[in-house]
């Protein structure tokens, strides 16, 4: 069965090197990696290389629920692109493109079979919007 692919994107008012670093540095990841203000990312590990793994803990601030969002990198081209596969074999592909001092990011990922596709798109887009705000406030 072919997985449904979902696409999200943003334009960040910062050079690609700054965007790349903020996207891949665990201390930064903990600051932006949540879909809403009642969630947080209390821990992040990132081994950014082909075959390397990442693990970000996503947790409700009230302590009611948490999970690890983790995967393995399949492609890493510094300041250009990242691809990874999640534990359930879903894939995500991210591109970074600098244009006139701004960085355009595009993420395409396989939808899971459990949640509504629009809910997944909205959640991932909210995280990406938090990321944009984090970078632009640095």
TrEMBL record:
Record domain Activator of Hsp90 ATPase homologue 1/2-like C-terminal: where: 13-136
> What is the residue range of the signal peptide feature?
none
A Pfam family found in this protein is AHSA1
List the InterPro entries hit by this protein, alphabetically.
ASHA1/2-like_C (IPR013538), START-like_dom_sf (IPR023393)
Q: Which SUPFAM superfamilies match?
A: Bet v1-like
What is the similarity comment for this entry? Belongs to the AHA1 family.
Name this polypeptide is given: Uncharacterized conserved protein YndB, AHSA1/START domain
């Amino acid at each position: 069965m072919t997985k449904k692919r979902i696409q999200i994107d943003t334009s960040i008012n910062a050079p690609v090197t700054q965007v790349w670093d903020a996207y891949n540095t665990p201390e930064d990841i903990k600051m932006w990696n949540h879909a809403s203000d009642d969630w947080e990312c209390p821990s992040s590990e990132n081994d950014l290389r082909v075959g390397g793994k990442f693990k970000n803990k996503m947790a409700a601030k009230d302590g009611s629920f948490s999970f690890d969002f983790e995967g393995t990198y399949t492609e890493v081209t510094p300041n250009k692109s990242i691809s990874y596969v999640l534990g359930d074999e879903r894939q995500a592909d991210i591109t970074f493109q600098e244009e006139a001092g701004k960085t355009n990011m595009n993420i395409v990922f396989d939808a899971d079979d459990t949640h509504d596709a629009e809910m997944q798109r909205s959640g991932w887009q909210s995280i990406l919007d938090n990321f944009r705000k984090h970078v632009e406030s640095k």
